[in-house]
Amino acid sequence: MKKRNMNFLLNLCASHSKHLILVTISGLFLISFISNTARDNLTLTLPHQEVSSEYLTAGNGDQVQAVRKAKVVESCMQRAGHAVLKPMNPYYATRFWPASLTLAEKEGIGWCRIGKVGTTAWSALFLLLRSIPLKQIQMAVANLTAHDLLKQTYPSKPSERMHMVKGEHGKEYFTFLVVRHPFVRLVSAYRDKLEKLTEYNVRYHIKDAPRMTSRRVFNSSVADSPTFPEFVEYLIRTPPNLMDKHWAPYTKVCLPCNQTYSAILKLETLEEDADWLFDKLKVENLREDWDKMASVNKAGGEVGRVHGGPGGKGGLSSEQLAKMYFSQVNKETVVRLYNKYRVDFEMFDYDKQVESFIKMAT
Fold first, then answer.
1. Looking at the domain assignment, is residue 224 inside a domain?
2. 53 CB neighbour count, 10 Å cutoff
3. How many domains would you assign to the chain?
C-alpha cells in the first residue's frame, strides 16, 4: 500500500513537473514573441539616404523601367514563401484587387488605381481613350464625379478583369501602376479625407454604421475629425484589408507580386514617365488634352487639382506639408509607421528617403 502511494506521488510530481516545464516554455516563448514584436516595431535599418535621380543615372525611360521592375522582382523573391499568411506579406490575399483594375479592352491597356496617387489625371486618360469630350471630363473633375464616370465607361466586373488581364481572353495587356512616396501619400490622404469634415468627404467620417463617427474609428479626441497623430496610430494598428483604399499599402491594392506590370510610374517623375508612356502606348494624340487635366506642380511633385475641394495644394510643397504634419508625431511613431509600410518603401525604392521624415518628428 505504501509502495503504491509512493508511486502515485512520484507520478503526480512528474506530471506537475511536465506541466511546469510546458508553462515555463510557453511563458518564455510569449515573452520572446512580445519582445521581438516590439523590437520589430522599433528597429530601423535603412540603406544610404539619397534623393532619387533615376533619369540622370539610368538614362532613358526603358532603362528606368527596367530598374524599377527589377526592384519589384527582387523584393517579391525575398518574401516568397515566407509567412505568406501574414497580412503585410505582398502575396497575401486582398479585397482591393482586381477591383482596382481599369482595363481598356480595345487598346489592351490596364491601370491599377491607387488612391491619392494622381487617380484623377489617369482617369482622364482612360476617358479620353473613349472619346469623352474634354469639357465633360473637366466638369466631372470639378464635381468630383470623374471616378463615377470612369466606372460607367468601363463597367466590367472585377472577376472578368482578372481573367482578361491574365490573357485568358487571348489578348495581352500593357498594365501599369503609379506610386509616390508613401509618407507623402498619407499626408495627402489625411488632408483630403479626414482633416476637415466637408460635403466631399463625409463618408470617411461615418464608418459602417449609424453613429459610428471618426471619433470611434480613429480613437479621436475631436468630434468629427481625427488629428494626424491619431490617424497614424490607427494606420499602425489596423490590418491592411480593413483600411480604406486611399491609405492601404500599394502591395495590397495592386498585388505586384502576383501580377506582373508592364510599367511602374512615379508621381515624382510624372513628366518624364508620361513622355515615355504616351510614346509607348502610341497615344501622343491625347497628350495635349491630358496635360490640361494633369498639370504638374513642379515645386511639390503633385498633380494639380481642378476642383476646389478639400486637401488641395494650398500653396505649399509636399516637403513643407510633410514637415507640418510629421512634426506632430514622435520619432518612435515614425519608425513604427515605416515598418508598417516597409514593403512599399523597399519595393518601390523609397527607403532611401526616410531619414528626413524621422528628423521632422519630435
1. no
2. 9
3. 1
Which residue is associated with the grid cell 489578348? Answer: 171
User: SS3 for the chain, per residue?
Assistant: CHHHHHHHHHHHHHHHHHHHHHHHHHHHHHHHHHHHHHHHHHCCCCCCCCCCCHHHHCCCHHHHHHHHHHHHHHHHHHHCCCCCCCCCCCCCCCCCCCCCEEEECCCCEEEECCCCCCHHHHHHHHHHHCCCCHHHHHHHHHCCCHHHHHHHHCCCCHHHHHHHHCCCCCCCCEEEEEECCHHHHHHHHHHHHCCCCCCCCHHHCECCCCCCEHHHHHCCCCCCCCCHHHHHHHHHHCCHHHCCCCCCCHHHHHCCCCCCCCEEEEHHHHHHHHHHHHHHHCCHHHHHHHHHHCCEECCCCEECCCCCCCCCCCCCCHHHHHHHHHCCCCHHHHHHHHHHCHHHHHHCCCCCCCHHHHHHCC
Contact between 48 and 352 (Cβ < 8 Å): yes
Instruction: Answer yes or no: are the C-beta atoms of 112 and 254 closer than 8 Å.
Output: yes
Residue 164's pLDDT band, with cuts at 50, 70 and 90, is confident
In terms of residue numbers, what domain contains 85?
59-185+247-360
Here the cell at position 133 is 469630350
Cα-based distances in Å from 228 to 234, 330, 351: 10, 12, 22
pTM, 2 dp: 0.79
- State the amino acid at position 38 in one-letter form: A
Indicate whether 236 pLDDT > 80: yes
Calpha distance 321→311 (Å, rounded): 11
pLDDT at 205: 65
The verdict on residue 207 lying in a domain is no
* Residue 40 belongs to some domain of the structure: no
